[in-house]
Amino acid sequence: MLIPSIDLMGGKIVQLVQGRKKALEFDDFEEWVTRFSKYPLVQLIDLDAALGTGDNAELVEKLGRRLPCQVGGGIRSVEAAQSALGAGAQRVILGSALFSDGKVDEHFAERMANAVGASRLVFALDAIGGRVAIHGWRKVTEVGPLQMIQMLDPWCGAFLYTHVDTEGLLQGFPQEVIHPLREATAKQLIAAGGIRSQEEIDELHAIGVDAVVGMAIYQGLLVA
What is the tens place of the pLDDT at every residue in 184-195? Predict the structure, then answer.
């Protein structure tokens, strides 16, 4: 399954390279809402909230009510997750909140699952150099994505693996990194980071992995 991505920063749709350099910017939301409305799931990320530099809360709620979204960025508490779900999100994505002092916080994951239901939680595995990165990809932990899956599998409905090293570069997704993760969980597994072709999406689909795509759609390499 192809999952289109909408990343928000400063009230606009943006695409960043490796989470740092802005490559594209759009303020015509209607075009993308119309194009993405045919998909069963859209990924909506508030980058300002993820970075702690502000938020796009009103825009997230507006888009979340018009599109079937899994929403992420700055969701760090049970209350924030409940608020996002109440505002129309189908699921919420958690990343940094799953860590405490650089270590995976299993108790928080369990508490969140008990509060909103594991099926409505997507746990983010954003990897740089084989280690999970948090706080808007600015801090790299000592935890690997596989270890994170093994620790947190009971408390979510899906895992989202982003290969930050190739994110936004349109150089392709390294398929080999996803295989051990696929073998480690029966939950939905979603891959992101440099996907640029339908062939890559088909390869991922063949092993039961869905694909989040942003840059390739906005650049016109993939028609969505």
Answer: 999 999 999 999
Query: CATH number of the domain at 2-218, please?
Result: 3.20.20.70
- Which contiguous run of DSSP H or E holds residue 49? helix 47-51
> The pTM is what?
0.95
Range of lowest pLDDT (21-25, 73-77, 154-158, 202-206): 21-25
Q: Does the annotation count 153 as an active-site position?
A: no
The residues spanned by each domain of the chain are 2-218
Query: Is-catalytic flag, 7?
Result: yes
The structure tokens listed for 103 are 């270590």
Annotated catalytic residue, options 46, 48, 126, 210: 126
Catalytic residue among 7, 46, 48, 210: 7
